[in-house]
Amino acid sequence: MDFALFSHVPWPEGTDPKQVIDNITEEFVLGEELGFKSAWMAEHHFTRYGLGSASLVVASNIAAKTTTLRLGTAVLIPPLHLPTKLAEETATLDLLSGGRFDAGFGRGAAGSEYNIANIPGDESQTRFQEAITIVEGLWTTRNYSFKGQHYQVHNANLVPPPVQKPHPPMYIAATRTKATQEFVAGTGHPLIIGVVLDTVDAVALCHTMVDLAKEKGKSMSMGQIPFFRYFYVAETEEQAKADSKAALEWNLDMIQWRRTFEFGSEVWEKMEDFRKTRTELPPSYEYLYENRAFIGSPDQIIAKIKQLQDHGIEYFGCNFSFGGMPQGKVTESMRLFAKEVMPAFK
């Protein structure tokens, strides 16, 4: 079993953005020391939900402070980038890191991000597919050309080329959209599972995508799929719940709040005002505890991960730092995980 770290790099009210970045850097550097294989960041724009608007820049800073940790994007949103520039920037990160870059791509879910960027939402699927095709083509092909509905490339040679050959590992997110599932399965690149699906649904999706890839003559195995969960381990279940409840509820509220914006965002508004005026509630902490998050004692966490392993999952990602979780609690949980949980999977 390989283990990974993941974060949206959340920026709650009252916290300093530089400190948030410093904290995630500390977490990922510690992750290398503790034996985690990789660390992944999400891309989000115009929201406190995450400071990953320039996730490749943040990753390059972490690359300079680590030597073996792989650096992943979960996910980059290709329709919000010029594909040729995205190919250059990802190849540059691969070069700077000495070939430690893992490319995760997805369409994203926030309409406000597309609207502010002036990208029509009904074009997201075709732009998504074309952009990924262009990035992979530029990574691998001399004198590359492409003519699509939204983008054209004429006789281009990527500078610099990526270090990894034929290209950095690629992972593509999908949830319930059939067109995305068909595209991912047809590429042959592994699926990537984020924290937004219930665990039962996420496992079912993995099986669906492996079967769909096989139908298309592609090879995708359960063991290749990075599988991320909201995560916290403490000495007891009671402590784990007490430590994680406020942070996870902030995360749930932020997801709900940001979806109310067609344009603009919540950045300069107060969450408490939203909580007082909203007319419906997001899923409860208890619901996520039971269905989506891996939170509990070491023995409980081991049992949960082994259930995933029974389905063939061999690459598990821990979202320790969600919702403004205090940094001391994050690193304490990471150390306990390395001491009490990791050895059960060697």
What low-confidence regions span 5 or more consecutive residues with pLDDT below 50? none
Query: What is the radius of gyration computed over CA atoms, rounded to a whole number of angstroms?
Result: 19 Å
Please tell me the overall pLDDT.
Answer: 97
> CATH superfamily assignment?
Luciferase-like domain
Strand ordering within the main sheet: 8-7-4-3-2-1-11-9-10
**How many individual β-strands?**
11
Count of helical regions: 12
User: Helical percent range?
Assistant: 40-55%
Mass-distribution shape: globular
**CATH topology call:** TIM Barrel
Please trace the helix and strand order, writing H or E for each element.
EHEHEHEHHEEEHEHEHHHEHEH
Strand residue percentage: 5-15%
Largest sheet: 9 strands, parallel
* Number of self-contained structural domains: 1
Query: Based on the structure given, which CATH architecture is correct?
Result: Alpha-Beta Barrel
- Report the span from N to C terminus: 7 Å
CATH class group: Alpha Beta
Class by alpha and beta content: alpha/beta
Short account of what is shown:
The protein has 346 residues and is α/β, with parallel strands linked by helices.
Describe this entry's structure for a reader.
With 346 residues, this protein is α/β, with parallel strands linked by helices. It has one domain (2-345): Alpha-Beta Barrel (TIM Barrel). The protein is built from 12 helices and 11 strands. The strands form 2 sheets. A 9-stranded parallel sheet has the order 8-7-4-3-2-1-11-9-10, sandwiched between helices. Strands 5-6 form a two-stranded antiparallel sheet. Strand 1 (2-7), helix 1 (17-34) and strand 2 form a beta-alpha-beta unit. Helix 3 packs across helix 5 and helix 6 packs across helix 7 (199-215). The radius of gyration is 19 Å and the shape is globular. The mean pLDDT is 97.
